[in-house]
């Protein structure tokens, strides 16, 4: 978009790369896996084209994102909804690691395996697993990362 302002160019780049190559791909895979049909009404071609033509000041202002959408929804949603921070869709990893994935966690992050690999500190990993299993601390992020690493390791390096 030659001559366009920085925000418009950034949004165009996002629209052309991040949406189709990441976000929309993930939504498509997740919805198909569950037999769901997903619609993205704000990606209507005429709407996107119209919004692209608007000046940047209509789209963003003083740390206020989604300005037009919030203005359009103001008479239909409570102010608390419009003002709340962005919230992503989270999968129940913490619960999975305490429940159905616990045996996999123990197998792939067990002391003997970790000692044999020599990549991670078995005592540290065991502490995090124990604290997570007992509900003392939420270690879902490091445990999930370690678990995914071990699956990757088995697939590509073992």
Features:
0% strand, mainly alpha, 158 residues, single chain, 10 helices
Structure, described:
The structure is a single chain. The chain has helices spanning 6-33, 45-53, 56-59, 67-73, 79-83, 93-98, 102-108, 111-117, 122-134, 140-156. It is mostly helical. Helix 8 (111-117) runs antiparallel to helix 9 (122-134). The mean pLDDT is 92.
Shape designation: elongated
What percent strand? under 5%
Instruction: Characterize the main sheet.
Output: none
Number of strands: 0
Q: Mean pLDDT, nearest integer?
A: 92
Quote the distance from N terminus to C terminus: 48 Å
Work out the helicity level: 55-70%
Total of DSSP H or I helical runs spanning 4+ residues = 10
Short précis:
The protein is mostly helical and 158 residues long. The protein is built from ten helices and no strands.
Ordered list of secondary-structure elements with their pairings:
Layout: H1 6-33, H2 45-53, H3 56-59, H4 67-73, H5 79-83, H6 93-98, H7 102-108, H8 111-117, H9 122-134, H10 140-156
Helix pairs in contact: 8-9
